[in-house]
Amino acid sequence: MIHYGNVGGMHLVWWFFWVIMLIWIFATPWDIPGQRTKKNTPLDILKRRFAAGEIQKEEYEEKKKLIEQK
Known about the structure:
By secondary structure, the protein is mainly alpha-helical. The chain contains three helices and two strands. The longest helix is centred in the first third of the chain and has 16 residues, at 12-27.
């Protein structure tokens, strides 16, 4: 007797589930530029601190010159 819902002893829905899971695990790009783990440069951090008002313009310009010299 053949059951059309079973394929290789595993229900067709489970085959579909595992195929989707494998595609998701192996095809998901993990290092997309600008997403997930953006690596901040010292200048990016300095700009963010200036924009947040943590440092004044003079301190920003002074530290920016130091960063650009390196």
